[in-house]
Design brief:
The chain has two helices and eleven strands; from the N terminus they run αβαββββββββββ. The protein is mainly beta. The chain has one domain: Immunoglobulin-like. The strands form two sheets. Strands 2, 4, 5, 6, 7, 9 and 11 form a seven-stranded mixed sheet that branches. A four-stranded mixed sheet has the order 8-3-1-10. The longest helix is centred in the first third of the chain and has 15 residues. The protein starts with a helix and ends with a strand.
């Protein structure tokens, strides 16, 4: 039995020493992408994800996540670097999409623990207005040296309730920064419940 075990170990070491090591270094031009866009399904009408819940960093939206509301404060959108990290800061440009691709949306009920609670409802959608529904955004996101992420912080303004209404805020990465966007994952829509 001992001879068989030794023969097996010698054979295994011979076979594994002949396996070619694969180089896993990224090759190509670095790009950036919106993290929730990569992780969530596209809306059939918009062609990109339109979220009614607050995105968590690095995971898809779940039914237990808090809904996007005028009461939420700041919502953080992560931007991923696809490529090697740099020793220098890099910038990502983005713009606000002017018009909602949707006229209404089936908004979910608030998650357990989210207060005050709100029932599920179909809400009409209008475009969010900078300074009224969210604080003006800079149009630039920074990826710090030796990191793979940057963040777009959207400060939602609570301007009082509007029954049956939601506001749309779209963000699209553009080529105005030092990093270019991945065209497949460069847009996200946020629908903010105004009830």
């Amino acid at each position: 039995m001992k001879k068989i075990l030794i023969a097996g170990i010698v054979s295994l070491s011979l076979f594994t020493s002949c396996i070619k090591q694969i180089d896993k270094t990224f090759q190509g031009t670095s790009v950036v992408e919106i993290d929730p866009t990569v992780l969530n399904s596209a809306n059939a009408t918009a062609g990109y994800p339109v979220l009614t819940r607050i995105p968590r960093l690095g995971v898809p939206i779940a039914t237990s996540d808090f809904t996007l509301r005028r009461l939420n404060g700041t919502v953080r959108i992560r931007v991923n670097l696809v490529g090697p990290q740099s020793d220098q800061s890099q910038t990502v440009g983005y713009k606000i999409m002017a018009a909602s691709p949707l006229t209404s949306i089936a908004f979910p009920a608030t998650a357990t623990g989210q207060t005050p609670s709100a029932a599920a409802a179909t809400l009409s959608i209008q475009n969010a207005v900078s300074g009224t529904h969210y604080t003006a955004l800079s149009g630039t996101c920074t990826i710090a040296p030796q990191t793979s992420f940057g963040f777009i912080d959207v400060a939602i303004i609570n301007n009082g309730p509007t029954a049956g209404q939601a506001r749309f805020l779209g963000i699209q990465l553009d080529s105005s920064g030092t990093l270019k966007p991945n065209p497949n994952y460069n847009k996200i829509g946020l629908v903010i419940d105004q009830r």
